[in-house]
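User: I'm preparing a small set of examples for a lab meeting where we compare how different chains pack in three dimensions. I only have the primary sequence for this one, and I'd like the structure in token form so I can line it up with the others. Please keep the answer compact; I'll paste it straight into my notes.
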Amino acid sequence: MHDHAHGVSGIRGQANHRLLTISLSLTATVMVVQIVGAILTGSLALLADAAHMFADASALVIALIASLVAARPANERNTYGYQRAEVFGALINAVLLIILCVWIAVEAVGRLLQPAEAHVNGGLMIVVAVAGLVANAVSMWLLSAAQRTSINVRGAYLEVLGDLIGSAVVIVAAIMIAVTGWMPADALASLLIAVMIVPRAVTLLREVFAVLGERAPEGTDVGTIRDHILSAEGVAEVHDIHVWQLTRGAPVFTAHVVVEPSVLEDGSSARLLSKLQNYLADHFDVEHSTFQFEPAGHREHDAH
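Assistant: Understood. Below is the structure token output for the 304-residue chain.
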């Protein structure tokens, strides 16, 4: 006995698809501006931020492709559909962030070890960094709502957040260079950007592995669910409870429920099923729930 209703969430919605497209356009534009600015100013921090923008643009492209794949309907070979495509897209995003972090760190250390070769135009650097700050703020605002329900949009959102902070760091470094002429500020800003990337990449990887490892969603108390099911009239026992996610915002629940003989005899099983499913939907936003009702005394033959 089960409920197969599936809602549209995360990047599977057309509205979020459109937001990702707008954010991609902004990111790509700023990336080009920062690359040109890095060439004109000689700033490694701007180049690092441009590289970060490139990773963000790639991440958004991956997210958009995943949104199209995830929207495909379920079939006999893929009975849950293609929602898991979002998770694989997020995994690629995280790997890109780690690679980017290593590249920035190596380049920054090399410039610190040879400071005589570094010369940066602080004034122009400020102008380019401010433009990046504004564009990142707009992108964050566009993605803020959608990132709560999609792991992939969340990955893009976190990267834009890092860009916003990175632009602020570049502005500070540019002001120091323009005012004092201290060129190492540029390389130090690049290192700081690299340090900021690491926690975001690790956080995203942890969330991806939690989904792929079929762990219970964050905030889901399996004990509370079990106690509520047991408290329902007619329920004698509950076992084999499993809770996992297809992707962020798409939890799945299954359980074997042993019921009193009267539940099966008087036809009240349908009411009990609706009661249990409504509880999961109202309190845990479960998109797909399956209950197997068993008569009291039933022996479980499945291997554990």
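A couple of notes for your slides: The domain at 2-212 is CATH 1.20.1510.10 (Alpha-lytic protease prodomain-like). The chain has nine helices and four strands.

User: Perfect, thanks.
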